[in-house]
Amino acid sequence: MTREGYVNSALVAALIGVPLWAHVAGEPFTITLATRAVIFALAAVGLNLALGLGGLVSLGHAVFFGIGGYAMGILAYHAQIYSPMFPDTLAIEGTKSMPVIWLVAILCSALAAFVIGLLSLRTTGVYFIMITLAFGQMFYYFTISWSAYGGEDGLSIYIRNSFPGLNTLVPIQFYALCFALLGGALWLSARIARSPFGLMLNASRQVPHRVETVGLNGQRAKLLAFVISGAITGLAGALFADLNRFVSPTMFSWHMSGEIMIFVILGGVARLFGPVAGAVLFVAMEHVLGDLSDYWHIYLGAVLLGIVLFARGGVIGLLAGQAKGHD
Amino acid sequence: MTEPVLDIRGLTKHFGALVVSDEIDLSLRPGEIHAVIGPNGAGKSTLIAQICGTLAPDAGVIRLNGQDVTRLPTRARARMGLARTFQISALAMEDTVLQNAMLGALGAAGNPWRLFSRAISDKALRASAEAALDRVGLLDKAAMRTSDLSHGERRQLEVAVALTLKPAAFVMDEPMAGLGAEGGQRMTALLDQLRHEAPILLVEHDMDAVFALADRISVLVYGRIIASGPPDAIRTDAAVRDAYLGEDA
């Protein structure tokens, strides 16, 4: 096994061990923190597919996170008030079933990623960053004024949604669900990275003109990567909303996009477990430093600066050595 | 006479008032190396860009194997067998040498939309990539990271990627660029063999290589072909000497 393999295994062991210990020791708050980290990791695994493999610096991934969140919020809200959506025409019932909510979250965020990708991928570099940011702000301000679903105040969901065979109100069981989904997303990312599609995408990031001259459609490869990326982040959004039992426009804010990107950069761009390491570190710092000072973001900034200046491979690169990541 | 593989008629391109391609007629017949030479700024790069589809001509027709490709995008021309090599190596530097060659093979196979199978385990892709690497003498470096290759080896890999396309015609943009004497000789020997696989349209500054390899030479000056013919005729052509080659050629 490579050194990066050991680092990844240690990370997985910690993500299994710590919540189990917390469960036995009766520390539900620790499990909640771990769940938060795992959900953030899932969102970042999504972004890493676009950013790491496709080289698409999206500052708008909060769109998908938010769409996932609102997919959960809206479906659960209608189930909660026993009143269907569009009562006069379609009369779609709400639902409290997680699998259904996840499916809706994935489909809606994939569709949004397709449309946003189709328009944004006409640009590159700083213009791509700006256009994705602009889409994020559009959704943010739309939800603020969307009074049917709480507007600026957001939506509270009183009871966590259900999953067949599990009691999702037990912290460790909800954690296990999130952890399993993270595992699935990591598996998918690993497969894609090594696939013929991954080969094409990887080359599209590095030498787009070469990809065209061998007869491949690099732009379409990036679009597909962006759609899959958005779908994964959207799923994370649905879980995040379920963790908090609350959705609000802040899920769409550009701070959220920035944080998802910070997870990836902290952990290591283009490293399979980079987003996981980054999200865990972020949540740990948020908890430990947040207790010490309201201004803990200063320390986060310092760490981020250190990583960007001295450890381009992120935490994983720092621990595993041997540069593999890229800009 | 055999039908030309690549046939360019009346190709014209203006940038504002500047004529960069002035009614260019050019053909590439099976088995030949046709060199295009000309001083800097003669319009060689814009000619290649138009042939390969990255720049649309204002007028004229480009035919590949008898089919009009003038309005087709780059990747459609590549799928029809137009294999281009770049003046500045366009390789995925973070990937291995084998992966770069496999990218070409993937383009030729035309089945890149597979997300779950392992590229490296695709026997057909691998065989095609390895055969091309073997051809240019890079097979023993297949597992190396491309950024670790020497400049000369990158030029060879550039040719290998083109080879994986099972080309109908090569369009090579200064394959000798930056090569030393030894590297240049190796590349010359390689191109000499490749003409039997597919004819080569060779844009090159290295006159030794051009005169050693070319069956025909066309001289491009200010966007216009001022002379075209076998090397001996070009060497003695007064207009060419004036415009380009200088006294010592």
Outline:
With 327 residues, chain A is an all-alpha fold.
**H-E order of chain B:** EEEHEEHEHHHEHEHEEHH
Q: How many E-type strands of chain A?
A: 2
Helix content of chain A: over 70%
The 3D shape of chain A can be described as globular
Oligomer: heterodimer
Roughly what is the average pLDDT of chain A, rounded to an integer?
A: 92
CATH C-level of chain A? Mainly Alpha
CATH class of the largest domain in chain B: Alpha Beta
Name the CATH architecture of chain A: Orthogonal Bundle
Distance between the termini of chain A: 26 Å
Q: Specify the CATH homologous superfamily of the largest domain in chain B.
A: P-loop containing nucleotide triphosphate hydrolases
Which helices and strands appear, and what pairs or packs with what?
The complex is a heterodimer of chains A (327) and B (249).
Chain A: H1 3-25, H2 28-53, H3 62-80, H4 98-120, H5 125-144, E1 155-156, H6 171-194, H7 196-206, H8 208-213, H9 218-244, E2 246-247, H10 254-267, H11 274-292, H12 297-310, H13 314-320
Antiparallel strand pairs in A: 1-2
Helix pairs in contact in A: 1-2, 1-6, 1-13, 2-6, 2-9, 2-10, 2-11, 3-4, 3-9, 4-9, 6-7, 7-9, 10-11, 10-13
Chain B: E1 6-15, E2 18-28, E3 33-37, H1 44-52, E4 59-64, E5 67-68, H2 74-79, E6 82-85, H3 97-109, H4 123-136, H5 151-164, E7 169-173, H6 181-194, E8 200-203, H7 207-213, E9 216-221, E10 224-229, H8 231-236, H9 238-245
Parallel strand pairs in B: 3-8, 3-9, 6-7, 7-8
Antiparallel strand pairs in B: 1-2, 1-4, 4-5, 9-10
